[in-house]
Amino acid sequence: MALTPPFHRPARPSPVLPVVAVVALLALPVAPADEGGAGTADVLSALVVVFCAVLLLRARRRPLTPTAALVLGLPVAGLALAAAHAVSPGAGIAGLGRYLQVFVLVPAAVVLLVRGRADFRLLAWSLVALAGWQGAVGVHQYVTGTGASYQGQDIRAVGTFGATDVMGMATVVSFGLVCAVGLALGRSRGRERVLAVCCALALAVPLALSFSRGAWIATAVTATAQLVLAGPRRALKAGAAVVAAGVVLVGGFGVGTTMLQERLDSITQVTDAPDQSVTDRYTMWAAATDMWRDRPLTGVGLKGFPEHRDGHASLALSSGSDIAGAGAAYHRQPLLSPHNMYLLVLGEQGLTGLVCLAGSWLALLVCALRGLWRTRAAGGRGLDCALIACGLLVWQLVDFAYADIGGPTTVLMAVCFGLVAWWALVGADRAVPGDGIAVPAPRNRVTGEAALR
Hints:
The protein is mostly helical and 453 residues long.
C-alpha cells in the first residue's frame, strides 16, 4: 500500500506584522495638524487591539494567565479613580484612553500576538530599522543646518518629528540602540551579531546630535546594565569596542563639537548653574509635588496638571519654551507637563495611581530579570531577547525621571512595554520552534497519534 506524502500547509504570516506596521508608520513625517493629538500610528494601534480581540474570540481561549492579567491590569484601578476626579468628563475620558493605550491595551495585544522569540526579534529589528531611518534624517539635518533651533543655529537633530517634539528622534534612536546592543550581546548568529554591533555604533551619532541630556543618561545607564547582565567577558569586550569607536569618532572624524562638550558639561551644572530649561523643569516638579500634597490619594485628576499649574508654580516658571527650525516658524510652546512621569502621575493620580503604575513596572522588571537568570543558567538560549526586554524597561524607567508620555512616540513606548511584558510573563518560560528547542509534535485530535511534520 502506497503511502500518501504529508500535506504541508503554507506558512501563515506572523500575527505580529500589524505591530510592525505601527512601528513603520512612525517613519512618516508628522503633519502640523496632528501635533498634540492622535496620529496615524495611534489609530493603527487601536485597530491592532481590535484585531487581537477578534483572534481571541475566534480561538475561544483564555487570553492571559492570572499573573499576566494582574500585572498588566494593575494600573486600571488608579486610572479609573483619577478619571473620576478629572477636571471635566471629557478630560477624564481622554486621559483614561491614553493611559490604557500605553500601559494596558497595546502591551497586552503585543503579548498575545507575539508567538515566540522569532516574532520578538522581528519587532526588535523593526525598532532598529526605524531608529536608523530617523537617525539618518537627524544627521542630515545637523550637517545641512535644517534641524531644530539650538543656541541660535538650526542644527538639532529631530528626525521627522519636527521642532515641537525634540525628544521624538532621541527616543526612537535610543530604543533602537538598546535593541541593537541586546542583539549584539546575545548568543545569535555571527552575521546578525556583527550587523547589530554596526547598528549600535552608528546610532550613537544621531543620539549625540539630538542634544538630549535625558536620553544620553538613560542610554548610558541601560547600556551599562546590559553589559553587566550579559556577563563580565562580554562586558569587557564590548566596553573596549565602545572606547575604540569613541576615539575614532571624536578624534578621527571630529564628531565631538564644542556644543556637544558644553551640553555634556551642563549635566553636572543642573544644580550649580542651571539654564532656563532646567529652572522651568524644577519649577514644574515643585508644582506637581504641591498638587499631590493638596490631594495625596487621588491627585488633581487626569489631564489636570495644565489646569492647576499656575496655582502651584512659582514666578520662576517662564511662559514657555522657544520653538523654531526644522520647518517651523518661531513660536513659544506652553509648558503643560512636569517632564517627569513619576511626578506627573503623583500630581494627577495621587499615591494610589503611582503605586498601581509603578507596581506594574516593578513586577515586570522582577519577572524579566528572573527570566534572564534562568536563561543564562540554561545555556544562554534567548539571551538576546532577555537583554532587549530588560534594557527597554530600564531605559524607560530612567528616562521617566526626565520625561513623560506625549507625542507621536508614545505609541512606540507602548509597543516596547509589550515586548517587555511578553518576555517577563511568557517568553522566558516558552519553548518555541526555531530556537533549537525540542517541541512535541502536534497530535491528531481524533486518534491521539503524533502528526507527521
